[in-house]
Amino acid sequence: MSEKILYMNGDQFRELLKTSQLPIILDFFSDDCPPCDVLAPIYEKMAEKYEGHIQFVKVFRQENRELATEFGVTGSPTVLFFKDGQEIGSRLSGFMTKPQVRIAIEEILGDVLPPAKIEKVTCDLLILGGGPAGLTAGIYAGRAKLDTIIVEEGICGGQASTTSHVANYPGTEGAINGKALTNNMKEQALSFGVRIDDLKEIFEVRLEGNEKYVRTEDTEYYAKAVILATGARPRALDAVGAQERKGRGVHYCATCDGAMYEEADVLVIGGGSAAIEEAIFLTRYANHVTIVHRRDGFRAAQTELEEAQKNAKITILTNKVVKEVVGGEFVLKEAVLKDVKTGEEQTVPVAGLFVYVGNDPQTQMFAGQVDLDETGYIKAAEDTKTTLAGVFAAGDVRTKAVRQIVTATSDGAVAAITAEKYITEGKNQL
């Protein structure tokens, strides 16, 4: 636990809210909550950075349900901002990035901190992203004795680290969670001398020319080659009221928030493995789970789909999308579903909705430098080469048919081997 963060119960926080002269940031967190684990080091980093300017507080939601109810919080993590005893600004909920937290803080305080001292670093290979693709690339590059640095905006692991149960990674017998798996990858990369700079927000990337340049808040990196492995993030539900109800009936993590819906009716949106797996998980708590999928075919593994079909607490609706969600004070009241073939609409009573409708690639910072397809993925073939010499793409950011942990690690290995060849051939000397 960070000394810069106050861990409080409900009564203690109410008293602090009356007396604090500083703005307050409050994080409602839970256990068994992968997005909470992702946020924790970011929160600690920010608490250190803004010491004396903002008071950072954490409240364990499961033991302080009265306070959570008082503020209308039903999901973890949920971050609230207070000034002069009143909540201000927009809340953050679910999976959060360091830039999201920073931007929210700057809206409260403005730019009150002095500029950070800038470190200048050179290396052979710079890897942007510390998910399975980036970590595997680091392992292979480290074994090849390349001076390698991995830069990650959050903590290493990527989306894989938020997966509670990995059933299809070879050699694990389906008995490992994503955090444990990616932690093993990280330790292996470190053992080969790879430098890992996590919690580094990237502000500028220049990929053209022989010298590749990346700038974070406190470091300028210069490299002979770059592997882009920034991954993807969960896509938000495109339905009326969904964004406003995030964390208050609309959720993106069943492991985090499923227990809040004991004996309630919930919807799961999506047709991939994540949607099916989380629907099955939710049957531990919910009275009934309805899976809503926009197509009549599913991308999930057949074994998972069959398990869901056999579960008496699960109903599957195909060829339907969520058009609108209607909320009560803290949870939902109902959802409006639309048939994509007939246009017919139906309203179903529901307390909570869990969204698994795919991901969006994190490639905005590379636009205009490497070629992207119409959906934002980097155009790169099986050799991971992009349209720029010395720039390679691996994992969920590149154009590919299958996006799984195992294909991400494959990409990482290929990218590192291809980058090593590029560097050692002397095509790019600093």
Task: Explain this structure.
This protein is of the alpha/beta class. The chain has three domains: 5-109, 3-Layer(aba) Sandwich (Glutaredoxin); 119-233 and 359-424, FAD/NAD(P)-binding domain; 250-355, FAD/NAD(P)-binding domain, CATH 3.50.50. Helix content is 26%, strand content 27%. The chain has ten helices and 22 strands. The strands form five sheets. Strands 6, 7, 8, 9, 10, 11 and 22 form a seven-stranded mixed beta sheet that branches. A hairpin with a 2-residue loop joins β10 (212-216) and β11. The longest helix has 20 residues, at 405-424.
What layout of secondary structure does this protein have?
Blueprint (H helix, E strand, L loop, with lengths): L4 E4 L1 H10 L4 E6 L4 H16 L5 E6 L4 H6 L7 E6 L2 E8 L4 H12 L9 E10 L3 H12 L4 E4 L26 H14 L3 E3 L4 E5 L5 E5 L2 E10 L3 E3 L15 E2 L2 H4 L7 E5 L3 H10 L5 E5 L9 H9 L3 E4 L2 E8 L4 E8 L5 E5 L2 E4 L3 E3 L29 E3 L11 H20 L6
Helix pairs in contact: 5-6, 5-10, 8-9
Keywords:
430 residues; alpha/beta; Glutaredoxin; FAD/NAD(P)-binding domain; 3 domains; 7-stranded mixed sheet
Question: Could you give a short description of this structure?
Answer:
Helix content is 26%, strand content 27%.
Count of individual beta strands: 22
What would the CATH topology of the largest domain be? FAD/NAD(P)-binding domain
Alpha-beta content class? alpha/beta
Average pLDDT confidence is 91
What is the CATH domain class of the largest domain?
Alpha Beta
Please state the overall shape, judged from the principal axes of the Cα atoms: globular
Strand content: 25-35%
